[in-house]
Amino acid sequence: MTAPRIWLFLGIVNALLAVILAAAGAHGPMAPTTPFLQHILSTASLFHLIHSLAMIQFGLWLAQNPNHYNFTGIFFLTGTVLFVGSLYALVFTTITFPGLLTPIGGALLMLGWITWGLQVAFPSKKQP
């Protein structure tokens, strides 16, 4: 599987998970009962879906620009797992330590946007 297809696939799977987890949080037996947890779930769902779509778009962009690196997708994926995953853990479980991972995940998401912007602004000299 080529790198663009990998990012398309991972983005699609993440988008599916975003919808499933948002539905579980809104309608399931584990739905948050406090406004604070509902806000955390809303934030997690928003960031999950946005970065799922970003992975899909990155895969499409990478297919048209094959001489670029996968750093952006790696940052988006790991950032999503840490940022969104830690928020979901706070909402759906009783453990609180994953909240320590939230800022690391957020920084990785920012790095994803920065690296993509740099790749667009400064075309790569990488050989295909």
List descriptors.
single chain; 128 residues; mainly alpha; 4 helices; 0% strand; elongated
Mean pLDDT: 92
Low-confidence stretches: none
Number of strands: 0
Classification by helices and strands: mainly alpha
Order of helices and strands: HHHH
Q: What percent of residues adopt helix (DSSP H or I)? A: over 70%
Q: Radius of gyration, Cα only, in angstroms?
A: 16 Å
What is the domain tally? 1
Largest sheet: none
N→C terminal distance: 16 Å
Strand content: under 5%
- Count every helix, treating DSSP H or I runs of 4 or more residues as helices: 4
Shape: elongated
Give a brief description:
With 128 residues, the chain is an all-alpha fold. It has one domain. The chain contains four helices and no strands.
General description of the model:
The protein has 128 residues and is mainly α. It has one domain. It is built from four helices and no strands.
